[in-house]
Q: What sequence folds into this?
């Protein structure tokens, strides 16, 4: 136990204050009654270094050894912070959808004659945090780590986390110290997007810690702008600035970044109000007025996310009828939902928001039109008195699910008004995900016509191609409900094999328009990814991306 | 209901009926002098009646949403207890919610008392290998904390009313059976049971005539103390999304969705919790009162 008096003495003792604070935070997280905490204010000790403390929504510290666990939020906070991909997201703008920029690879190109072969030219002079050099050997070593089961450094834990990203990669080889060739199983223009999520751990550090990934996780070494300084499992991970970062423009402004898992939304709010943290992810909408009243900045921006019902188009599903799919899309009062969500959402008009380059020009305008919905249902033979019965799986919580229960309850009322009788099958989030991976045709999904699984849409595969193409069924693809449309298949194939980004964007826009016109899903709202920041936090640019750059952020 | 153990201490028997009434009369007289138990019983009865006649007394449709009216404060002139996050009348939802919450409080306990009591009496009376088999099986259940067990069973079976009913019943059977078994084992060795056996009475007759009458009291007292636990666990299951399916009003589920609003409408948010508290508190105090009243040694 340390005392505050000691802490006032010298810079050296700031570490002790940190520990004191750790204990307090520990206590906080154990107190479920976060209400009382709202009034508790614990003085933040004066720190010599600039510290940014972030409360994440995850329940545990994500895996630190390279490929983070805990889903996409784990990726956000322990992916491009400690590590780099060959390709990076450009997160410097709040005004346009994030695009790709060179990362550990300075440039890349697909072979003109064989579209399955890609050449990546690596950046020179990049060093891991342990001082060893990043080169072609490190790339092949890390690919072996994920995909070569008999390699000594193969790590099952990391491999599982990255499996969605390396699915299309067939082989890889070093050409020279700074050139790598990656071959895909079939022509795949989306590969550079997938490479933003494959991270490179230091082979040297792995040798130093006795070839043990668990030990590596305690003292990881990557090439990213932050270095792991302290890792307390289940409690926190502390990162410090990597002064030797290859991109000096992205040198972190803060000296230290403290990442804390805090799954309960009200606890996060209480922690921010009590000055225990400077930044919280996903404050509950109804806490926003209280946060603003305390001078907190609630930052939100559109990012590629949609909250939908993914529906089944199989023979036993009412949604096989396009009129019913369209009616369901027209029946939802999205403005009402946005109100429920405290304005931190955008009514959906399709998979993507209309400002996105892949939105295209769909002719089916998704809006609140109960009259139109009733008319379509009447054509299909249903009415308020004789409603069409549909059953959808929902979960009470989950990553990106916003406020799943009240939102679904509201939609149920909207549906009732036009003649759709929506029944819920409630299950735990992981169970719902398992149902999603199993496909509508799985025996356990018999009689189920949809799943409420929110969707992140950061690359062409996950956003458009895999959910829609008939040749991409789950679990390798994302087509859950046997959506089958010849034109969609044709466009999906064309997108995969078009390597000119501008041309591909045009095809994707056409694909999106077609999906909307076919009412493939029931699209409800886009999350605005709210986060609440203490007024002392400066320099944050909310990028239109799942990822966010913490390097320009500092606490003043 | 006859109670021979008690009656042995009294005047020579003249007939079964008058004597049996005297025991319950004693209990009744003691309860009538216990204001806490009486108050709690009145409150519980009120909640129960409200729940039963919900359609008659609820001022609004508990399912009707309205974004314009969301989270109205407690004391609103049309919605006395305010509205929830979807603008539904809270008073109506609390009244309707009582149906599910009370049902989930009583039903598992009733089922568990019947099943667990029977198994316990069988185990206690039969003794030997059968006792061993039944009680050791229940010991396995005992190894898990009740809440964890209920969550685990509900998690496996999936959400829904029937499944939570099954899981809660399974959770309560072992403790009820244990109480029944231990009392039965004591009774079995009493002289009057020996005497009955010696006169050639069949096991069935001994159990119904001598054992059950003595076991019922302790089991009832124990079971009544489980009601509050059942309400709380059932609400907990719904809170976790493993119980009642939305938009069905149920206190635990309401607490879950309303807690998001704790910063702007704290009163509305705690109301379902208050109902859970009052109901479980009352049934607990009634259980205490019953124990006092039925304890023949007092």
A:
């Amino acid at each position: 136990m340390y005392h505050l008096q000691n802490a006032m003495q010298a810079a050296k003792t700031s570490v002790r204050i940190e520990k004191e604070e750790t204990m307090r935070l520990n206590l906080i997280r154990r107190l479920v009654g976060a209400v009382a905490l709202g009034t508790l204010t614990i003085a933040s000790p004066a720190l010599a270094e600039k510290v940014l403390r972030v409360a994440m929504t995850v329940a545990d510290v994500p895996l630190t050894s390279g490929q983070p666990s805990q889903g996409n939020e784990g990726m956000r906070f322990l992916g491009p912070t400690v590590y780099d991909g060959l390709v990076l997201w450009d997160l410097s703008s709040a005004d346009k959808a994030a695009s790709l920029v060179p990362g550990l690879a300075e440039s890349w190109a697909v072979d003109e004659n064989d579209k399955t072969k890609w050449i990546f030219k690596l950046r020179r002079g990049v060093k891991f945090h342990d001082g060893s050099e990043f080169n072609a050997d490190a790339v092949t070593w890390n690919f072996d780590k994920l995909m070569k089961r008999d390699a000594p450094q193969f790590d099952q834990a990391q491999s599982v986390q990255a499996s969605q990203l390396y699915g299309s990669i067939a082989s890889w080889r070093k050409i020279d110290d700074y050139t790598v060739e990656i071959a895909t199983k079939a022509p795949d223009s989306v590969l550079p997007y997938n490479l933003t999520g494959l991270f490179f751990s230091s082979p040297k550090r792995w040798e130093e810690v006795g070839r043990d990934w668990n030990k590596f996780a305690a003292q990881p070494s990557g090439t990213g702008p932050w270095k792991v300084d302290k890792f307390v499992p289940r409690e926190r991970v502390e990162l410090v600035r990597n002064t030797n970062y290859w991109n000096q423009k992205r040198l972190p402004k803060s000296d230290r970044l403290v990442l804390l898992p805090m799954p309960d939304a009200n606890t996060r709010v209480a922690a921010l109000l009590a000055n225990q943290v400077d930044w919280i992810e996903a404050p509950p909408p109804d806490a926003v007025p209280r946060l603003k009243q305390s001078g907190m900045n609630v930052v939100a921006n559109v990012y590629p996310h949609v909250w939908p019902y993914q529906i089944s188009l199989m023979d036993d599903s009412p949604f096989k009828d396009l009129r019913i799919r369209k009616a369901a899309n027209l029946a939802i009062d999205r403005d009402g939902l946005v109100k429920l969500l405290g304005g931190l959402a955008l009514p959906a008009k399709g998979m993507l928001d209309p400002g996105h380059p892949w939105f295209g020009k769909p002719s089916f305008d998704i809006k609140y039109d109960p009259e139109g919905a009733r008319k379509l249902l009447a054509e299909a033979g249903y009415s308020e008195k004789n409603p069409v019965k549909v059953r959808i799986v929902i979960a009470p919580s989950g990553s990106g699910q916003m406020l799943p229960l009240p939102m679904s309850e509201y939609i149920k009322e909207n549906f009732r008004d036009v003649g759709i009788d929506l029944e819920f099958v409630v299950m735990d989030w992981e169970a719902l995900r398992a149902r999603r991976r199993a496909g509508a045709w799985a025996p356990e999904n018999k009689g189920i016509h949809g799943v409420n699984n929110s969707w992140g849409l950061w690359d062409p595969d996950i956003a458009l191609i895999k959910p829609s193409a008939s040749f991409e069924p789950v679990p390798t693809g994302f087509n859950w409900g046997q959506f089958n449309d010849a034109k969609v298949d044709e466009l999906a194939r064309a997108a995969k094999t078009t390597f000119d980004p501008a041309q591909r964007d045009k095809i994707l826009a056409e694909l999106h328009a077609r999906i909307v016109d076919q009412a493939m899903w029931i699209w409800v709202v886009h999350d605005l990814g709210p986060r609440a920041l203490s007024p002392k936090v400066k320099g944050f640019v909310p990028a239109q991306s799942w990822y966010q750059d913490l390097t320009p952020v500092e606490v003043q | 209901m006859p109670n021979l153990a008690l009656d042995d201490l009294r005047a020579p028997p003249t007939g079964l009926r008058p004597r049996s009434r005297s025991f319950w009369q004693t209990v009744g007289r003691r309860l009538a002098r216990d204001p806490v138990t009486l108050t709690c019983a009145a409150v519980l009865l009120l909640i129960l009646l409200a729940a039963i006649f919900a359609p008659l007394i609820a001022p609004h449709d508990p399912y009707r949403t309205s974004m314009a009216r969301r989270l109205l404060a407690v004391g609103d002139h049309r919605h006395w207890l305010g509205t929830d996050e979807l603008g539904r009348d809270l008073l109506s939802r609390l009244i309707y919610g009582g149906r599910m919450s009370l049902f989930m409080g009583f039903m598992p306990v009733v089922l568990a008392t019947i099943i667990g009591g029977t198994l316990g009496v069988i185990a206690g009376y039969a003794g030997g290998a059968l006792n061993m088999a039944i009680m050791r099986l229940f010991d396995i259940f005992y190894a898990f904390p009740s809440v964890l067990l209920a969550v685990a069973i509900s998690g496996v079976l999936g959400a829904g009313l029937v499944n939570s009913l099954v899981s809660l019943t399974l959770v309560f059977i072992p403790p009820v059976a244990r109480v029944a078994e231990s009392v039965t084992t004591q009774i079995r060795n009493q002289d009057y049971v020996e005497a009955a056996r010696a006169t050639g009475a069949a096991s069935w007759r001994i159990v119904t005539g001598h054992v059950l009458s003595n076991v019922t009291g302790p089991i009832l007292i124990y079971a009544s103390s489980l009601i509050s636990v059942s309400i709380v666990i059932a609400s907990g299951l719904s809170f976790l999304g493993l119980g009642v399916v939305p938009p069905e009003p149920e206190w635990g589920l309401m607490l879950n969705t309303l807690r998001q609003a704790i910063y702007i409408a704290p009163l509305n948010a705690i109301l379902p919790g208050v109902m859970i508290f009052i109901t479980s508190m009352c049934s607990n105090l009634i259980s205490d009162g019953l124990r006092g009243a039925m304890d023949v040694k007092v």
